Amino acid sequence: MMEEPVRLPVAAALLSLVACTESTEGTTPKLEGLINPLQRLVTPARVCNAGGGAAGWRLELIGSRFTPVPRDALTDTPSVELPRISLSGPSDYTLPEDHLFFARTELMRMDLPTRDSTPSNVLPPGTYTVAVTNPLGGTSELEGALRVVPPPVITSITAPQGFHYSAGSPLVIEGSGFRSDALPLIVLQREGEEDQPLFTLTVVSDTRIETEVPPATPEGTYAVTLTNPEGCAVTRPQALTVAYAPLGTLSVSPRGGPANSDTAVTLTSTAAAFTDGTGTHEVYLVAPVKTDPGQTVNIPLYDVTYVSSTQLKATVPTCSGFDARPVTDPTCPGGIVPGTYGLIVADPSGAFGTLPASSGFTVSP
């Protein structure tokens, strides 16, 4: 006797899905568009036949008169029969019922299975007509509404000019399935570090991309992940090893200076590695400043001067930090927090060296 109050409201809710139409018999839907939410302004919608997660890629169907009907409304297991969605083109395919979702009469969603979903289905690349058929009859087709593309493939990654610490290092990525009409997202990945996006890139063709490794990228071996705008991605593990020409063993003299004034120093290399006349040497103290004592940053030394292939002269901004010189406040409010810190030295040739804090420069209180 307690089943009726539960079952009847369920039936009423199901019937309300079709109550807004004049008739549930033979209503013909109207399909006006198909959208990949990752690229809402792209027509026809593009979708990759791989990736997409466990259910596949979520797509949206826009139109009118999408009309589900209640099924078994007066039983213990009421349900709704949704409009059928099918594709025709290089291959014919009908979406499983559990991959269809009704939002309102103007919007439905579907999860398109791929090679990597469960269940899996690999649609051949090409252009497809999409059809919506209401349960009680009536079909609407939209020709060329969907373009299926294969996932990108990376076959090689090369740095033809090697790596330059102080400037972007050209990088060439070759493969297939690249988008010449839209820029992909490319990131370098290494365990324990944040992803490093590559910002400067040109898609030369669907088989070649030219980009740059950003300046000062830490040395090490990186995986490279390329993601096309429609969502499909490829990762090539241990694809790129970033390494700079070494400057030899470095030392600094004097080994320290007071916090209330800047300090002139000499940097010496055991190798004849410093070059002259090809650009500017960059030297940084890796330390925090008083305005943000919890954040370690690269503080550039100023007046960096080439002396010889083994020596540079520079000034450590122990008092000025990042502030404009001269600093007239004797408390040096933007100066470097007292402590012992390492240095980074970059030669215009692209060579690179570090001086660890254990043998670095000490800022005294």
Tell me what you see in this structure:
The chain has 365 residues and is mainly β. The protein folds into three domains: 3-149, Immunoglobulin-like (Sandwich), CATH 2.60.40; 171-242; 250-364, Immunoglobulin-like (Sandwich), CATH 2.60.40. Helices cover 4% and strands 47% of the residues. It has one helix at 3-16, and strands at 30-35, 45-48, 57-64, 69-71, 79-81, 84-88, 93-94, 100-104, 107-112, 126-133, 139-149, 153-158, 169-176, 185-189, 196-197, 201-205, 208-213, 220-227, 233-242, 250-253, 256-258, 263-269, 282-289, 292-300, 302-308, 311-316, 339-346, 352-355, 361-364. The strands form seven sheets. Strands 21, 23, 24, 27, 28 and 29 form a six-stranded mixed β-sheet that branches. A hairpin with a 7-residue loop joins strand 4 (69-71) and strand 5 (79-81). The longest helix has 14 residues, at 3-16.
